[in-house]
TrEMBL record:
Molecular function GO terms recorded: Hsp70 protein binding; unfolded protein binding; zinc ion binding
Protein's name in the database: Predicted protein
Keywords: Metal-binding, Repeat, Zinc, Zinc-finger
Presence of the UniProt keyword Secreted in the record: no
Pfam families attached to this UniProt entry: DnaJ_C (PF01556)
Highest rank taxon of the organism: Eukaryota
Limits of the CR-type domain: 1-69
GO terms classed as biological process: protein folding
Start and end residues, zinc fingers (CR-type): 1-69
Length: 221
């Protein structure tokens, strides 16, 4: 609800508070004991002025503000950050003799079960078996915008499916997937390549054909 200030109402100083908007009241709190305190003037409700009945606006009844409904449309651009603010200047509640404030929307990033965001990068984890690590693999990744990306790899190959032409601040950046990552689960030591293809295979097979959890990451570039 936004308040809309109205003009043109004729007012004069409140006789109850003499235009101060506050009144000093005195009350007895015990035998021989009194208390004085300031309180909002009940006649002018703290405004310090009164408007006669003949001059009162029929819409606001002399309050100088009236209630108004307004719909604000918030546009969230691609790549906006967690905690980023969208400001609507001068759209807050209005009041007489005051500067109207702003309405501020603060973006909160909602967690996704599959994709993880870090700054302008987007991370996704995918598990491959030992056989896939040795012989290559392929799988279909559904992007956040609904696109189907075919992720395909041969031994030792580095791929980047698609090179979308987007500004660096956007979330949807080129996707780089590579072999040779370190395992993220299990207590087995990392497996490194050797110069011999035979030695490379034997070292991997010695780990019992366990599946490694690997991390794919978006990187600007």
């Amino acid at each position: 609800m936004a308040d809309l200030a109205l003009e043109g109402q004729i007012g004069h100083h409140c006789s109850g508070c003499r235009g101060a908007g506050m009144r000093m009241i005195t009350r007895q709190i015990g035998p021989g004991m009194i208390q004085q305190m300031n309180t909002v003037c009940p006649e002018c409700r703290g405004s310090g002025e009164m408007i006669s009945d003949k001059d009162r606006c029929p819409s606001c009844r002399g309050n100088k503000v009236t209630q108004e409904k307004k719909v604000l449309e918030v546009h969230v651009e691609k790549g906006m950050q967690h905690g980023q603010k969208i400001v609507f200047q001068g759209e807050a509640d209005e009041a007489p003799d005051t500067v109207t404030g702003d309405i501020v929307f603060v973006l909160q990033l909602k967690e996704h079960p599959k994709f993880k965001r870090k700054s302008d990068d987007l991370f996704v984890e995918h598990t491959i078996s030992l056989t896939e690590a040795l012989c290559g693999f392929q799988f279909v990744l559904t992007h956040l915008d609904g696109r189907q990306l075919l992720i395909k790899s041969n031994p030792g190959e580095i791929i980047k499916p698609g090179q979308p032409s987007t500004p660096c601040f956007l979330l949807f950046l080129p996707f780089g997937l590579r072999r040779g990552w370190l395992p993220r689960r299990g207590a087995d030591p990392p497996i490194h390549r050797t110069r011999s293809g035979t030695g490379h295979s034997s070292r991997r097979c010695a780990n019992g054909g366990k599946a490694w959890e690997l991390a794919a990451t978006y990187k600007a570039g």
